[in-house]
Design brief:
Radius of gyration of chain B: 24 Å
Shape of chain A: globular
Strand content of chain A: under 5%
Number of helices of chain B: 18
Order of helices and strands of chain A: HHHHHHHHHHHHHHHH
Largest sheet of chain B: 7 strands, mixed
Number of strands of chain B: 21
Distance between the termini of chain A: 13 Å
Oligomer: heterodimer
Structural class of chain B: alpha+beta
Distance between the termini of chain B: 24 Å
Strand order of the largest sheet of chain B: 8-9-10-1-11-19-12
Number of helices of chain A: 16
Strand content of chain B: 15-25%
Number of strands of chain A: 0
Amino acid sequence: MSLLVKLLAQRIALGLLLLFLVSILIFAGTIILPGDVAQQILGQSATPEALANMRRDLGLNDPPIQRYFSWLGGLVQGDLGTSLTSGKDIAESISKRLGNTLFLAFWAAIISVPLAILLGLIAVRYRERWPDKLISAVTLASISVPEFLIAYVAIFFVSVRLRWAPSVTTINDSMSLGEKLHTISLPIAVLTLVVLAHMMRMTRAAILNVMQSAYIETAELKGLRMFTIIWKHAFPNSIAPVVNVVMLNLAYLVVGVVVIEVVFTYPGMGQFLVDHVSKRDIPVVQACGLIFAAVYIGLNMVADIVSIVANPRLRHPK
Amino acid sequence: MNEELKFLSRQAALGTISRRKFLGRAGALGVTAAAANTMLAGAVHAEGPQKGGTLRIGLQGGSTTDSLDPALATNTTAVNLIRMWGEPLVELTDDGGLQGKVAESFEASADAKTWTFTIRKGITFSNGQEVTAADAAAMLDRHSGEESKSGALGLLRDIKNVSTNGRNVIVELNNGNADLPYLMSDYHLIVQPNGGKDAPDAAIGTGPYIMKEVDMGVRFVAEKNPNYWGDIGHAETIEMLVINDNTARVAALQSGQVDIIDRVPPRTAGLVSRAPGITVASTAGPGHYVFIAHVNTAPFDNPDLMMALKYGINRQEMVDKILFGYGSVGNDSPINAAYPMYTEMEQREYDPDKAAEYFKKSGHEGPVLLRTSDNSFPGAPDAAALFQQSLKAAGIELEIKREPNDGYWSEVWNNKPFCTSYWGGRSTQDQMFTTAYLSTADWNDTRYKSESFDKLLIAARAELDQDKRKSMYADMGMMVRNEGGLICPMFNDFVDAYTDKLGGWVEGVAGFSLMNGYAAQRMWVTG
């Protein structure tokens, strides 16, 4: 187990270093963009006096390096600072949006991950027969169409025509869990369609890879049912690549769904980040960027650890 | 009209029978759905406002980064939001005149240099505090002071002193201004306790609603203010959703999740209006889409080249293909019939021969560079391409450079010599000319600098004789049209849409979209 602890410590240290580099990149990126926060807030209606007043109040006259380090200083003490545009506490406003994003990602994952793996297993069981071909065709078709198009088609038929589910998925605290789930049913469905193919294809390929092994033949000769062989003998041995792909898709569900958020008017992190980038609200962009990077690095770390735990040879090194 | 139908429409308007039932019965009596809808709308209006219910409105433009401070309001969502909880001293009437809001009356001294606004008696803020003249004076001080970040700062530069006397607020100006009350209708200038100096974003005002839930850029809930002094604010609750994506906003209306939306894309407005139970309302306004050239910068300092460009644009084609008919042709002046003192001018038409003639006279060689971006106005790159084609017929080459949306307003507009842009318009000619055509204006985005124009503008501002004033504005309009750097092909209408669940829409209200932002307060839920 000491290997695992060492590995974990190593990964976390590397992750922190990565986050630090990410924060420098984001800061530099937002500085390079044309216009500053005062100009973006006042927009076309900016007068020179109003601009000067706002720049002074927001501390934009300090040199960028100084602003970066004062931000970093706050961060190590656990203070994300306040938003330049709204003056609100960043941690507070982000936590609500992050909660929404995780809520959507969670339910999309709960449905799509088991479904993808099950479909992968079925595809292997009926390999090269019609169920396999049908599953592949449908999932590949749904991943090939841009997600916003699937979303618009779903809105047109399910919301406008049939009126089964809302197209505007703005959830709020006064809703019960059931109401919330009904509200976000369309984005969940669309996200499921988008991430299904990747995970399902990887499950299928990984299992087919081990289906050639001698122990599968043994199991067959023992007279086990085909599905039992796949589930009990083949799947556990092919779990590492599957977990990797699942984690990549989970990360996508958290950090990559801004298009879905816009189309369905979902109050998640993506829209929040875009709003603040367009206003050059650097502290908020930094915080969002760090959270996204942390999610990505964290999930990949989980994938690595799972594949080590799942492999006895790596678990018990000589 | 058939007596039975009349009876049924009245029943439907009163809510005794459902709208669907009414439409079904009307269909059985051989009336088309469209005619039945119109009939129902008429009956709903005749019954007068109904109280109660929840009105849901879907708006474009809101962002997570917005503030509730009216000084910082820049988008249409913010304007509609401010109208919920707050009121300015005066407001536009439906036909562009003026009515008192927080001020019950106002009057000017003979030279229009001193204005007195009398605060309405016995009205209170939503926190229970009585509204005083000091609150209004503090408000003017906050927006015009040295420290101001307000979007209204430019309007208030000329104020010399603000004082109070009982219920009167006395505003003294450096120069006479007959339009000062119009400036006071600006949506930034909301009367707040102590002028909003203590808590600018507390959303406490004298408006018909009180904000209950605020989630910036996402969702707002407002409830009726039980102590509101006026007669608007019919729905018990108003729910505002920010839906920035055009398709999503229209779908929300069609699927019945909201009752009214703004900014229906002109491209699809025709299709939307054909859906049962949905009315698309287009309102003419002062907003215009423009091509602006700096007339102090080569090659646009050449008046013949400017003339060639002005004759080389096909205005009607732009109205048809960019606005899909939801608008009217421009005439290279920022003023149209939406302004109170508008005088009609001879329409400049597309004339490739004349354009070619002027172009030859100008002696200009090579292409003319135009910069554009998607966000400079909806369909701007397409409009630029149309301009390119119509100029080609006159033998003038237009080179189009696509600029990124991001940073367009800080890097290109008011910076590069020739680009596409838009103006929302102002409520008076004086304001429009002062904002963008006075030599010293910050936003003189055509760099039009004319001494005689400036003199005329200052003189007209203090002129209380309306006829004289009108002819002065006509002269100014003509000067901009002939000498200015503005090429204005079209005035865009506001295109809003609402379902038959709502009654009380008024056609042609002056000001902004959605009945000058008052649709949610002035319309009512019919059940």
